[in-house]
Specification:
- There is one protein chain.
- With 109 residues, the protein is an all-alpha fold.
- The protein has a domain at 66-92.
- 56% of the residues lie in helices and 0% in strands.
- The radius of gyration is 30 Å and the shape is elongated.
Length: 109
């Protein structure tokens, strides 16, 4: 009985020490951010886009003119259908040549 109580007390002591160390490690000791940093963080992110007042962006490549979003979505959907058809044909007759054969999609992998 004394062995069980000693093991229980040691386990509780180990849990208490672990909890104290975890609380100390996860505490946030960083100073409060300044107003300019907060303002920058609140601005919306622009992924591969310029700021609204920055003027027109320079586009390179074969499609330098602006393309409607619907046309791009249709092209992507067509590419996905072609890739799915190629995958299904490979599943029906798997071989190395059909695995590496190009699709008729205009989008390059």
């Amino acid at each position: 009985m004394e062995m069980f109580l000693m093991a229980a007390v040691m386990s509780l002591l180990a849990v208490a020490v672990s909890a104290a160390l975890f609380a100390a490690a996860t505490r946030d000791d960083r100073p409060e951010a300044t107003g300019s940093v907060k303002r920058v963080a609140l601005e919306p992110q622009r992924f591969f886009a310029s700021a609204p007042g920055a003027g027109p962006a320079v586009q390179a490549g074969p499609e330098a003119e602006s393309v409607p979003v619907e046309a791009l979505l249709l092209r992507i959907e067509q590419h996905i259908r072609l890739e799915q058809a190629a995958a299904e044909s490979f599943l029906h007759t798997p071989n190395g040549q059909s695995l590496h054969s190009p699709t008729t999609s205009r989008l390059v992998n």
